[in-house]
Amino acid sequence: MNEIAKQPDMEVTKSLSTANRGSALIITLGYLAAVTIFASVFLTLLNRTMSNFTQKETKRIAFHIAEGGMDKAIAELRHGRGDYRGEVNVPLGRGRFSVEVNRSDSPEKLQIISTGEVVDGERVISRIRITAEVTIEPSGELRSIVWSGVGKQ
């Protein structure tokens, strides 16, 4: 009689064991889904951060290239090249600059516009334009340089 009484307990134990295996599978799948979601969110945020950093870096490089163009124009004017009107697409570093020198109504006032571009082949990645006002003394020396604007073109 002892053996008959033990058989139903064994079936109950087998049923519980099978039920536990199913719940363990569900818990494992839920855990894997949560880890996958967290990993995809992390990678998305990392990608966005890297894109923002790259964009800011290329803007900074374009600004420095435009500054190089401005320095070139000022150097040309300081060395007595009063006829200097600018240059277009001069290679510098990872990009190029273009400079335009405009004379105003007053002969001693000049406006220098320099555009710096970071390029990849022929594709422009970033572009910055800076403007400066220059006053020239009658002796030909540059008297003052005022940066009147920095902006994205």
Give a written overview of the molecule.
With 153 residues, the chain is of the alpha+beta class. Strands 1-2-3-4-5 form a five-stranded antiparallel sheet. It has one domain. The chain has one helix spanning 2-78; strands at 86-92, 95-103, 109-120, 123-136, 142-152. It starts with a helix and ends with a strand. Strand 1 and strand 2 form a beta hairpin. Helix content is 50%, strand content 35%. The longest helix is centred in the N-terminal third of the chain and has 77 residues, at 2-78.
Summarize this structure briefly.
The chain is of the alpha+beta class. It has one helix and five strands, in the order αβββββ. It has one domain (14-152).
Q: Which of globular, elongated, flat, extended, rod-shaped describes the shape?
A: rod-shaped
Helix content: 40-55%
Strand content: 25-35%
Low-confidence stretches: none
> Would you tell me the structural class of the helices and strands?
alpha+beta
Tell how many strands the DSSP assignment holds.
5
| Intertermini distance | 95 Å
Order of helices and strands: HEEEEE
Strand order of the largest sheet: 1-2-3-4-5
Question: What would the keywords be for this entry?
Answer:
153 residues, alpha+beta, 5-stranded antiparallel beta sheet, 50% helix, 35% strand, rod-shaped
Describe the SSE topology.
Elements: H1 2-78, E1 86-92, E2 95-103, E3 109-120, E4 123-136, E5 142-152
Antiparallel strand pairs: 1-2, 2-3, 3-4, 4-5
